[in-house]
Design goal:
26% of the residues lie in helices and 16% in strands. With 180 residues, the protein is an alpha+beta fold. The chain binds zinc ion (2 copies).
């Protein structure tokens, strides 16, 4: 299976680069095929079983995994944005999630879910635009001093996480920030 056939996830365009889907020779428990990649994270479900490294991204993309196993993948929105039900469904049932310290949050903008681009680099955080900082302050009900303090402490992979989201409509970059 070539990477060219890799499914297209509107809200998580490169889950391999973000570290949430990875190469594997394991057979997918939904389609029973070893397709070369598996979702590295557990699915969201009520049971105790761990579904990590058992579901191929193709079965996430077409919704088979969600319906066959009764699970979701990426789901909680961190903002009070009106987002169409179809977008929320695509996010929760057909999009690979990611892992953060306090439980994954997905951001929205322009009445749509944003696409997840992974952990921010130090430059992306230190050079965040005024619009990005303003959006963060509004979402978190915090002032700019709080942002500056968090941003100055940020080192990728350490105990503060900056997760990057891009609006599919206006291009605004937003960060979801959390800490260990
Ligand atoms: Zn599969
Ligand atoms: Zn936007």
């Amino acid at each position: 299976m070539s990477i060219n056939d890799f499914p297209n996830f509107r809200y998580h365009p490169d889950p391999v680069a973000t570290g949430n889907v990875g190469p594997s020779s394991a057979a997918c428990r939904v389609c029973q095929q070893a397709r070369g990649y598996v979702y590295l994270r557990d699915a969201i479900h009520a049971g105790r079983e761990d579904y990590s490294e058992q579901i191929c991204p193709w079965c996430i993309a077409d919704g088979r995994a969600a319906s066959a196993l009764g699970v979701a993948f990426a789901c909680s929105l961190d903002v009070d944005q009106e987002v169409p039900e179809t977008a929320l469904e695509e996010l929760s049932l057909r999009t690979p999630g990611y892992v953060s310290f306090q439980g994954e949050k997905w951001l929205a903008h322009c009445s749509d879910v944003c696409r997840f681009l992974g952990d921010a680099t130090m430059e992306q955080v230190s050079q965040a635009s005024a619009a990005t900082i303003a959006a963060w302050c509004t979402t978190n009900d915090a002032d700019k001093a709080v942002w500056l303090e968090l941003a100055s402490d940020y080192v990728p992979g350490a105990d503060i996480g900056f997760y990057t989201f891009e609006c599919l409509h206006c291009g605004l970059i937003q960060f979801h920030v959390d800490a260990a």
